[in-house]
Specification:
348 residues; mainly alpha; two-stranded antiparallel ribbon; 8% strand
Length: 348
């Protein structure tokens, strides 16, 4: 009789525990609308993770989560990250998120022609990396040598501009490696179709493409602008590109200067193509695919000059006399410049 009662009690106890386990595992303590951003920081033990889940109202019991995770082997597989959870999630679903690393992703878009300074500012504004750390990493000689196999001062030009998905815990150099890898893929595909590139090295081609990118307000003019630079190089003419002045001053002072003064034109920097006889010291921005394609397959023209119409397009000329005429018409004429900027072309 006693043994039968004991068996019944064991059965009831087991049933109770099974029922409690079922209720614990079937749902969370709150509702779907109760959203929580939950972080697993580097070095955090699973015991602390479980306590944090309880303190943030995501589970009923930290102890039961630890037991459940240990039975499943999940306690050793949790990944560092930032997770978007809700209080209706059952513990099993929460653990699956943490084990599979389903961390919150942030879209970061770098427009074509962004330089390292602008990229750094964008990343810092998103709260992902400090601008200073990004710039320093892009200037790390060991990383540059590892990624490019050449001795240059910066990864400027090789950080392919597009939209990237990052998490709060993305490793900085891993991210940079991905950007350079994207550049290499695009570059290789275009290089296979290249025509005459004037014997320029990869670094010189990327430098030239960055200038084409910064000079272009109208995409359809990229190959024509590339042709002008090639023509000037072949005649040993200075390239005289205003964006190289701006970038050189940016590198020199650490600050962006939008308007060029007369004194800046003759102020020597390693990038100023009014003072440097050929290409600048290196890329002045990170060119997109179309700008790279333009230097691989430029138009065949005799143009040696171009001047902005102030609407994103340019007047192309073959003689200095005609160029001066275009300058008088579009740059020295206040009415032609009034209220216009190539920077506003995409806003119209």
């Amino acid at each position: 009789m006693i043994s039968r009662i004991f068996v019944i009690m064991l059965s009831l106890g087991a049933g109770y525990l099974a029922l409690e386990a079922f209720w614990f595992l079937s749902a969370g303590p709150g509702q779907v609308k109760d959203q929580v951003i939950f972080e697993v920081r580097p070095g955090t033990s699973f015991t602390q993770v479980a306590e944090n889940l309880k303190s943030q109202g995501l589970v009923f019991s930290a102890t039961k989560v630890r037991i459940f995770a240990r039975l499943r082997g999940s306690d050793q597989k949790i990944k560092v990250g930032e997770y978007r959870l809700n209080k209706a999630m059952p513990p099993q679903e929460i653990l699956e998120n943490l084990v599979h690393g389903k961390s919150i992703q942030y879209d970061v878009t770098f427009p074509e022609g962004s330089n390292v300074f602008e990229m750094a500012q964008t990343l810092e504004a998103k709260g992902l990396f400090k601008a200073k750390d990004f710039i320093e990493a892009c200037r790390d000689p060991k990383l540059i040598q590892d990624l490019l196999g050449i001795e240059v001062s910066s990864l400027e030009g090789y950080l392919f501009p597009e939209t990237y998905k990052l998490t709060k815990y993305t490793e900085l150099k891993t991210f940079i490696r991905g950007m350079v890898s994207n550049f290499k893929q695009v570059y290789s595909s275009l290089e296979a179709q290249a025509k005459n590139t004037g014997g320029l090295t990869r670094h010189e081609l990327v430098t030239l493409a960055s200038m084409v990118e910064k000079e272009t307000g109208a995409p359809e003019e990229r190959k024509r602008i590339a042709s002008v630079f090639y023509n000037r190089l072949s005649k040993k003419m200075r390239l005289q590109s205003d964006p190289t002045i701006i970038y050189g001053l940016w590198v020199q002072t650490g600050k962006y200067q939008e308007n060029i003064r007369k004194s800046d034109i003759t102020r020597p920097t390693k990038y100023n193509t009014y003072t440097v006889p050929r290409l600048p010291f290196g890329p002045i921005a990170n060119p997109g695919k179309e700008a790279l394609a333009a230097v691989f397959n430029p138009e065949h023209t005799d143009y040696l000059y171009f001047v902005s119409r102030n609407d994103g397009t340019h007047v192309f000329t073959t003689s200095y006399q005609d160029h001066n005429k275009a300058v008088r018409e579009f740059q020295l004429n206040p009415e032609a410049r009034k209220g216009k900027s190539w920077r506003d072309i995409n806003k119209q």
